[in-house]
Specification:
The structure holds three protein chains of three kinds. By secondary structure, chain A is mainly α. Chain A is built from 15 helices and no strands. Classes of the chains: A mainly alpha, B alpha/beta, C alpha/beta. Chains A and C meet through helix 3 and helix 8 of A and strand 15 and helix 10 of C.
Chain lengths: 337, 230, 374
């Protein structure tokens, strides 16, 4: 399979950009560091800034990358699954299930006395359970009605139900709990320790491996159900696998980072604009790189460098993502794939 | 050889399509299948592709029942070309052609000679780097045919391959398919409405009616029209 | 109660201990303003005494005026703006009012409130458990039907905006609704001074006056003692969540406490409105050396706090066990600081002095705060 030189060059540029943005991300923060302070902070364990760089900034940058990879992949796969450019990672409703799980823990703990569980474990646990429940229900529905359109509708249904239950929980909760839930729903790159980063890497990694191994069948999938089937692709099996791997990736992401908005929707579009190819393997790598870049950049903006305050992550990803999407739509003049 | 022995083709119990579809198709032969619109030509082909399950009877491919084939194994035996749904417009022509490698991933087309033969035979070389959405209907038709042929299967089933083609393109494609059948010992089934086609000795005319799949002994237009009117 | 008794009682306000704040506009019109509080005042016009409520929430120009009359008074004033003194059956939407009532021994007249599971007073809690006090429901939407049908004389409301719908409904039933704005006062003693309003309502002014005088004296005494201490330890407040530190709203009330207890609030010079979202980096940089951390979460163990962010364990206040929560009541989910702490700022001040300057108060047990354990 020949990869064009221009594609190779683009990918190399993206990788270089990623390294650069990673360094920029850990260099900038609410505490202003000079270059000298930054470099001493990197290796000198006694320096005042060592802790900030190693315990806060580096994990934050790593989790930004992983979030970008996971969401980019999930968005890309969803757009293939539904052959619809408006699909994002959340279209299956898995994230709302995760939100419901988190809401049950945060808002419901006064009702259900789950107070003994520390939120650091409780929130990811309940969120994962919520995501898992919705994912299982979706797969069950799909096994009975093998129609992708039904998937979209069930996704909307589950989202609505979860949303309604969350409203009820919120209505009866205290102000402090409600605030905590709202803050969770802003999405966050913070606070991932080594274990969480490993789990994220595992889930996104599995998803990537699956997609790379099945890149050809996924391409055939793009050509239509009939074409794919005549080429020998087990269309049903692939669909179930896409749902499964995407659901797992999104579920894990939501559990640790909260529902991060817009990334999964806009990154595949950017990737398609830059790498004008339908080669799934190339697009997969590109989507991972662009996703990381996007979240790293958003994280830098959200930190409001040299300022004591910071912005919620979702606000930044939406503010940056929406105009980009708009620009792409106008540029291609029609909102096709 | 493909042996068709279908008593009844149907959508479901309440909606029958055609019956008495009994015929056999051999390598080295080209079969033109005619029939009224909606009579079930596409459905018959879909049944062969495993896309349609509603039938009573048997279909054997080289003595093995069709249902015993997994999708991948079947894709290595028969290639199909349908009037497909809307396609992802960002496919470049050469990328779309590469899809043909999927069933044969183990030995992907290293036979450049064959690939060249196909792309030249169908005059696709000027378009290889274009996007699908830039092509006209006729050009896209030829791309689809090329992808189908590049699967390098022994049996090829084409649903209205001459649609959207102008007179010259139609003739060219017809001759190309005939050469393929003769020189490469393929078995080709195709459905069409066009009659004035160059006819060879290893070509056969079939007419699909609601009660039978009749093979005509001679290539007679009058006889065909007579059958179609029944 | 005989009318002249009421007049005598109320004129004590005007003749009384705090002659500062008296304003004689004319022989028939006198005004009295409290020493610290800005949200209420009293007036006497043409022989009738009025309670004025002024600006009960931030940024408002809202005013209320209530005529205080005795049962037998033949005043034909609009009944919704007149209050029969003393009130015998009242309801409230805020647990802080319980603190005032408790201080004046007026718990039996309280018949209903919003948030019964947040009342920290044991006396009130036991009455709640015996169903002698009814739950009114959410603060903004109390069970008005119940109020109307159970001969409630006065409804005390805590509100951040005008609650016109509730107010008009109650007015139709001729039940006065008083916006109690003690929480909007900036000075700790100003909030405590509202006890005088409660004193008037329950016809216990003398008691209220003397209680407040004692609180004021105690407060000033301890303020002076803290002042002469040489160093002011650094203090931070707030709670981390997901790498962001949420510090409470810029709050002159707490600032005054810190000042008077001779504590240095590390972020007192930051300009902002609303609550503050600080980056953990910034907090670590500026607050690392603070020896005291006034937490605002529900965690009771330092180890739970440390799980929230890797830098928490590096804070001085955490390493030296200087982290405090507002303590919960033993009988409910209520927080004492928001109830009794409102009416007894002198005790709060002592607590803070004990935390910041332990050498001054060796035998004092913390009333409103508790130290987090490992």
């Amino acid at each position: 399979m020949r990869i064009k030189i221009s594609h190779k060059r683009l990918l190399v540029n993206l990788i270089l950009g990623l390294i650069l943005l990673f360094c920029l991300n850990i260099f900038l923060g609410s505490v202003k560091l000079s270059i000298k302070e930054f470099i001493t902070g990197l290796y000198d364990t006694t320096s005042a800034n060592y802790l900030i760089i190693h315990s806060l900034r580096i994990p934050k940058a790593l989790s930004s990358i992983l979030i970008g990879v996971g969401l980019g992949l999930a968005g890309f796969l969803m757009q293939i699954l539904f052959r619809n450019p408006l699909s994002g990672p959340y279209v299956l409703g898995v994230t709302t299930g995760g939100s419901l799980g988190a809401a049950l823990f945060i808002l419901g703990s006064s009702l259900f006395s789950i107070g003994f569980l520390h939120p650091k474990y409780g929130i990811p646990l309940f969120s994962s359970l919520g995501s898992l429940t919705v994912l299982s229900m979706i797969l069950l529905v799909y096994k009975r009605i093998k129609d992708p359109m039904t998937l979209l509708i069930t996704g909307i249904l589950f989202s609505s139900i979860s949303g309604a239950v969350i409203s009820i929980l919120a209505y009866f909760s205290t102000a402090e709990r409600l605030r905590e839930f709202v803050f969770w729903s802003y999405g966050s790159t913070h606070l991932m320790n080594t274990y969480e980063l490993l789990i994220l890497t595992l889930s996104s990694g599995l998803c990537l491996v699956f997609a790379l191994k099945n890149s050809k069948p996924l391409e055939a999938f793009l050509a239509g159900d009939i074409m794919a089937k005549t080429l020998g692709v087990d269309v049903d099996k692939i669909r179930v696998q896409i749902i499964l791997f995407t659901g797992l990736t999104v579920g894990v992401l939501t559990a640790f980072a909260g529902p991060v908005a817009f990334v999964g929707l806009v990154v595949p579009h950017i990737s398609r604009q830059i790498l004008k190819t339908s080669n799934v393997q190339l697009q997969l790598i590109s989507v991972c790189l662009i996703g990381s870049l996007f979240v790293l950049a958003s994280d830098i903006v959200a930190t409001l460098p040299s300022n004591a305050m910071s912005l919620p992550l979702n606000a930044v990803t939406s503010i940056i993502g929406a105009p980009i999407l708009l620009f792409i739509v106008i540029k291609t003049k029609r909102f096709i794939f | 050889m493909i042996v068709l022995d279908i008593d009844q083709l149907y959508f479901d119990e309440a909606n029958p399509i055609a019956s008495g579809l009994k015929s056999s198709f051999s390598k080295g032969h080209l079969y033109y299948i005619y029939g009224r619109n909606g009579i079930g030509k596409t459905t018959l082909f879909k049944t062969l592709a495993g896309l349609h399950q509603g039938y009573k009877g048997k279909i054997d491919i080289e003595k093995i029942p069709l249902i015993d084939f997994s999708p991948q194994e079947r894709a290595k035996k028969i290639a199909f070309m349908f009037q497909t749904e809307t396609v992802y417009p960002f496919f470049k022509v050469h990328e779309y052609l590469d899809l043909a490698n999927i069933p044969n991933a183990e030995n992907s087309i290293k036979e450049d000679e064959y690939k060249l033969f196909i792309t030249q035979g169908l005059q696709l070389e000027p378009y290889l780097d274009r996007y699908l959405r830039e092509l006209s209907q006729g050009q896209f038709q030829k791309v689809k045919l090329a992808t189908c042929l590049l699967q390098m299967t022994d049996y090829i089933v084409l649903d209205e391959p001459f649609a959207h083609l102008d007179l010259i393109q139609k003739e060219r494609m017809n001759i190309f398919i005939q050469e393929l059948v003769t020189n490469r010992n393929k078995c080709v089934l195709l459905s069409t409405h066009h009659f004035d086609l160059n006819f060879k000795s290893n070509n056969h005319t079939l007419c699909l009616t609601s009660t039978q799949l009749k093979i005509l002994n001679e290539n007679s237009k009058e006889r065909l029209i007579e059958l179609l009117s029944t | 109660m005989k009318p002249y008794g009421l007049v005598i009682a109320i004129s004590l306000i005007f003749a009384g201990c705090n002659s500062v704040g008296n304003e004689k506009i004319s022989t028939k019109h006198k005004k009295w303003s409290p020493k610290y509080a800005k949200g209420f005042s009293f007036e006497e016009k043409d022989g009738v005494t009025y309670l004025n409520i002024l600006n009960p929430w931030p940024g408002s120009n809202f005013k209320q005026q209530f005529a205080l009359i005795s049962e037998n008074d033949s005043l034909k004033a609009n009944k919704s703006l007149a209050i029969n003194i003393p009130i015998k059956r009242w309801a409230t939407s805020s647990t802080s009012h319980v603190g005032f009532a408790e201080e004046l021994n007026e718990l039996n007249s309280l018949k209903a409130l919003s948030g019964t599971n947040y009342v920290s007073s044991e006396g009130v809690q036991s009455r709640i458990n015996k169903n002698e006090i009814v739950e009114l429901g959410q603060t903004g939407q109390p069970n008005i039907e119940w109020i109307i049908r159970n001969q409630i004389e006065v409804y005390l409301n805590f509100s951040i905006a005008e609650n016109a719908s509730v107010q008009s409904l109650l007015e139709k039933a001729q039940i006065p609704m008083i916006y109690i704005g003690e929480w909007n006062e900036k000075h700790p003693l100003a909030r405590a001074e509202w006890i005088k309003v409660f004193g008037v309502l329950f016809d216990k002014q003398k008691q209220a006056d003397s209680i407040f005088a004692a609180i004021e004296t105690n407060y000033q005494k301890w303020k002076k003692r803290a002042e002469i201490e040489g160093n002011a330890p650094n203090i931070i407040s707030g709670s981390p969540y997901n790498g962001v530190w949420y510090a409470p709203q810029k709050n002159s009330y707490m600032q005054k406490f810190y000042e008077d207890a001779n504590l240095n609030y590390v972020w007192k010079d930051l300009e902002y409105t609303g609550s503050l979202q600080l980056d953990m980096e910034f907090v670590f940089n500026t607050g690392k050396s603070a020896s005291i951390w006034l937490n605002s979460s529900e965690y009771q163990y330092l180890s739970s706090l440390e799980k929230l962010n890797p830098l928490i364990s590096e804070l001085s206040s955490v390493q030296n066990s200087g982290v405090y929560n507002t303590s919960k009541s033993k009988v409910s989910e209520g927080v004492l600081f928001y109830e009794k702490g409102v009416v007894r700022p002198d005790l709060v001040l002592k607590d803070l002095i004990q935390i910041g300057h332990p050498n001054l108060l060796t035998k004092h047990k913390l009333h409103f705060f508790e130290k987090l354990r490992k």
